[in-house]
Amino acid sequence: GFLMASYNFYPMSNTATTLEVLLEPTVTANADLWLQVTDADVPFYIDNVEFREVNVTKANPEDHILFEYATFTSKTIPLTGVWKTLSNVSVPGSVTIAPFSSIILIK
Question: Considering only CA atoms, which of 105, 61, 59 is closest in space to residue 83?
Fold first, then answer.
């Protein structure tokens, strides 16, 4: 029988798009890669496809945090543990987010 163990969705666009996708087999025997297009009336092109075996360490979602703030005043959020910005700047204790802004922190 057919068993789809893993799938990803990527939006189509009318401009060229570059995607890097990590494919992780869920079986040890033969595996298949299927492309399914739900809007058959739209022409699309797939080119420059490259498959490479890589060694990766999957990120733990609990090691990343995103704060978004969409009001007119700043907000201070307390933090537990050691966090850094994407620029590798330590954020001890709390983070203050300006109005209508966001921040991504990593452990």
Answer: 105
Two tokens, residue 78? 């307390």
- Run means of pLDDT, 10 residues per run, the chain, 107 residues: 62 79 74 74 81 81 76 89 88 89 86
The DSSP output letter for 71 is S
3-state secondary structure (DSSP) of residue 101:
strand
By C-alpha distance, which of 10, 38, 37 is closest to 22? 10
DSSP 4-49: ----------SS----------S-SS--------S-TTS-----S-
Give every CB contact of residue 13 below 8 A, 6+ residues apart in sequence.
Answer: none
Q: Does this model's pTM top 0.70?
A: no
